[in-house]
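Structure first, sequence second, as always.
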């Protein structure tokens, strides 16, 4: 007798902050310290000439979407148009 199990999806904790500007703009992401499942796609909606900026300590999140830049201590993803931010690893 045997059973078939499912491996749990990798989970992560977000250590990121985000800033939303522009009336009607939004980011359906998680607040710092919240948990999620990898991979996870977040929806960015830009309206009213706004932007969404997501920041995390450098190297803790691998993600695609937006314009990715870095400082000596921070990964920064900037959206000036609607799109998706996809966390692929932590």
């Amino acid at each position: 007798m045997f059973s078939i199990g499912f491996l749990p999806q990798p989970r992560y904790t977000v250590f990121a902050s985000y800033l939303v500007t522009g009336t009607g703009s939004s980011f359906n992401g998680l607040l710092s310290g919240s948990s999620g499942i990898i991979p996870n796609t977040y929806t960015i909606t830009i309206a009213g000439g706004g932007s969404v900026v997501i920041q995390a300590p450098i190297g803790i999140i691998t993600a695609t979407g937006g314009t990715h830049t870095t400082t000596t201590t921070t990964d920064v993803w900037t959206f000036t148009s609607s799109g998706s931010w996809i966390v692929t690893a932590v």
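Margin note: The radius of gyration is 15 Å.
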